[in-house]
Each structure stands twice: as C-alpha cells, then as structure tokens.
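Two entries, shown back to back:
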Amino acid sequence: MMTGLALVTWADPEESFKKGIAALDLEKWQESASHLRAAVAENPRESENRVFLSGVFSRPYLPHYYLGWALFNSGLQDCTEALKAFEASERQGLIKSFKRQYQNLQTARDRCNEAVLPDALAAAHGELERATRLGEGLTEPLADADLERDRVAGLDKLTEARAALESGQDGSRLSDLQAAERVAGEAAALFTKVASRSSAATSERLAVAMAGARSAIEEAVGARQDLSRLLADPGRSAAWSEQADLVMPADGVARLESARSKLRNDSSLAEIEQAQADAKVAISSFERMRERAEQATTRYVEGLERQAALGATGGSPRLPVQVAPEIRPARETRPTTLNSAQRKLVNEILRLRTIGSRLLGVLGTEETASELLETQKSRLTLLILEARERRTTEDAEGLETLRSRLASSLAALQLIAGARAFLAGDALQTIEILDDTEQTDVQLVAQAHLFVAAALHTLYLVGGEVDDSLGMRASSAVRECRALAQDLTPDPRVFSPLFRAFFQQVVNSGAS
C-alpha cells in the first residue's frame, strides 16, 4: 500500500544535539535552532544525562531550553517560537535544577514577553471575534446527536477562550493569550464543522426526499394511466353499465397535481415531503378504484356464467363471446431493493462531492505527483461519471456494486492524502483526513488507523506528554489497526523509532 510515497529517515538525536550545541557556541543561531529542532523531534524528553561534545566537555540533554536560547539570540522576531520552547522545557521541570540555565530562561522569557505581547493580544482578540461570529447562528439545540455534541463543545471552548483572554490581559501573560487564541480557533473549527455538516446533511436529506417524491409521482402517474386504460376498455363497458361511480377519482387527480406543483428545484424539505405524501394518497386512490372496477367485472362475468349454466336446460341465452374480457394484471411496482440501491448511489455521489473535492485540494496536481495518486484520481473521476449516468438504471445489484467501487476508490484516495499530510509533518490534517475512512477494504482501513495512531502519538510527544487523552487515542488506533490486520507493523523507513516502540508496547500489552 505504500507504493509511490516518499520515505523518511531518522537521525540520532544525540548527534543532532551535538551539532546544535556546536553551532550555538559559535553563535550560529539559526543553524543551531535547525539541529536542535531535529533533536526535539526525535527525542523531546529532557534528561540529566550529559552528552559529551568533545573530549571532557559535555552538556545536559536539554534540547527545548537550548532551542529557545538559540531562537531568542537570533532576534526578537523569533520570540514566539522561543517562548514555546522555553515553556516545553519548564513543563518538564528538569531545567529548574540547572540554576544558570534557568536564570537565562527567565531573563529571555521576560524580554520576549515584552516584545510579542501586543501582537499576541491582537491575535487573541481577532480569533475570539471570529469564533463568536461563527457561533451566533448555533444557539439552538440540534437534532443530530453528533452535531449537538460538537456545538456544545464549541460553546464551552468559546467560554474557555474568553476566560483565558481576560486572564492574559490582567496578568500580561503570553501563554494565556496564546491559549485564548488557540482555544478560540478550536471553537471556530467546531462551529465551522457543525455548520458544514448541517448543510451537507440538509442537502443529503433534500436529495433523498426528492428522489423518493419523484419515484412516488412516477408511480402515481403510472397508476392513473393504467386505470384510465381500464376504464376505457370497451370489452368491460357492459359490466359497469349500472355503476356510474366507476370513474377516474377526482381526489386522486387533485392529489397528483398537488404533488407535481410542490416539486420544484427550489422546494423546501417540507414541500418535498408533502409532495411525496400527496403522491402516495393519489396512488392509493387510483388503486382502490381499479380494485372496484376489477371486482365489478368479476361479478358481471360470474352472473353471466350462472345464466349460461341455466340456459343449458331452460333455453336461456348463450354466453356472449365478449363477456369474459382479458383482465390485465395489476401494474407492477418498482422493487424496493432497486429504490434502495438508487438512493444509496445518490448518497455516495453526494459524499464524494464533499469529501472527494477536499482531498483533491489537499493532494494538488503538481507534476511530481506519484503514479498511484494519478491512477486513483482518474479512477475516481471515471467512477463518478459512470455513477451519474447509471443512477436511474433498473439493475439494483449493479448499482450496489458501483456504489461499493466508489466508496473503495475514495478510501484509497483518503489514505494517500493522509499519508502525504503525515510525511509533510501535519499531524492534525492527517487525523482529519483519515479519521472517517469508510469500512470498505480491510487493508486500507488498517493502514488508515496506523497513520492516525502515529499522528496522535506525534501530537502527544510534541505536547510534552501531558495530554493523556492523545496517548489513549493513539493506543486505541493501534489496537484497531491490529484487529483488522494482525501482521501489519510500522515501516521503519516511514515511522520513527519512538512510535514503533510505542506500537509494539501497545500490541504486547494487548497480548498479555
């Protein structure tokens, strides 16, 4: 499954740390920061263990602290990143046992706070205002449980962001202002997600309702035409000569016309549902009248047969040639399985429009795109065209097969996009792309769980290993991966040693 993806190799963290300290001593700040970032990425845990640089000279393994010091010295323009590095070092706590280094950290942090505080305050205000605007239209509870949970979570984060902003303004703390901006951004993302999915869900419901209403109207038109032909049959006129009420039912005709008038391109969901209900009433009306006409014919024929039987002994008239007209069978209705298959295909096309376009935007169309990616893009495009052409066909089994192929192709495209995001270092986008991969192909879904687990583990490490929920989610993704593919293991060319060790630890704990 990894064909066409770029490979990543991992360096020794001590070597990166040594190079970073060597550049730091020469006051090559940016070069030092680059090496120290590599050390943090490979092993973010600070340690009392000393790393020997040359001969007897050594430094404690404090990559976060030294990264912040290099960034601070490179200029105030890098203060924001320097503060993040200092915060990560302080959060681990070990830096406080090194008096000189900790004093340097505090001095640099205070100077950076003075430099970046105004911009941080403006950014926090801006993000909070954006989140507030997005949440204004989501004050009422939603029927969908998942959307309602996200809506409430967004409102809670909005409250949290306001509290953090107030604390940052009062105490002039950069970390509070950054937290306010971050949490407000999370609230805005939740509100955007709710609004988008609400719109998508409404569009999907409209599409399904429209298909159902059109099918019902088509069935009502067919029932009316069948009844019209039956009532105009000259071979049956004698059977109904004494039943003047055997005519086209006015209420059925009125309901059918009402259904047609309500079904427009801009119809609301309520109008579409009412059109379907009117069409069903019309169908029932036409079918009842047809049943009455058939019963009247049957009674008339039975009466003539009794007269013929009496005529065999009493000289009564013989049975006329046309008294037993051909009774047409009731009109066949469309199989339920076919309607279901057509609805599923329409839903899959709608899902492809929303998810597929987003994935193609992530992947791009650069010339360096792999052959595997181009193949999947082409396959998905052809399948969508085929689905649009065949969504009204009468082959239920063929429609379901096509829907399954569409879902499988989309899952493959999701895996490629998620893997690319992971290899580009964007863990959040990796999770967003792969978290909802549909259960179509076991190997595809297992690979998706593997990348999600690695992305969650990366966020857990970069965050200083303080958010236990990220670690638990990463463990859960590993278990789901192995449940689907027991022989699947992380490729050492792609996944870091720390993640591979974590993966094996989770697997071993599940086996014990």
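entry 2 starts here
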Amino acid sequence: MDQPLWYYSLVYEAPSHKAMKKLTMQFIGARKVKITAISTIRNSSSDFRKKWLTKVEKLGLANA
C-alpha cells in the first residue's frame, strides 16, 4: 500500500486491514486488535520515517 490512508480506506475499504484483523487475529482469539497504518513511505523524508519508527516503538513497548 503506497497511497494515502484516506484513499485506501474510502475507495478500497482497506481489504488488507480487514483480512489481518478479522481473518487472522480475531480467528486465533485476539480480542482487541488495532491497526497502525503508515501511509506513503516511498517519497517520505527521513524525519517522517524517524517519527514513525519512534511511534511504532512506543506502541510496541506499551503492548508488550
């Protein structure tokens, strides 16, 4: 997915998010499933990527 998140959700209805959440995680018994989407990485700046890596790291530590 290399498109804006709003477009992916609105036009395509986020099929990979639904598949991961419903058909994989909830199928194995995970009750609370949240998806953190990072849109358009290809042309992003290094500052943008660093910011997202920090955010994802904090999410991982909070849910460990």
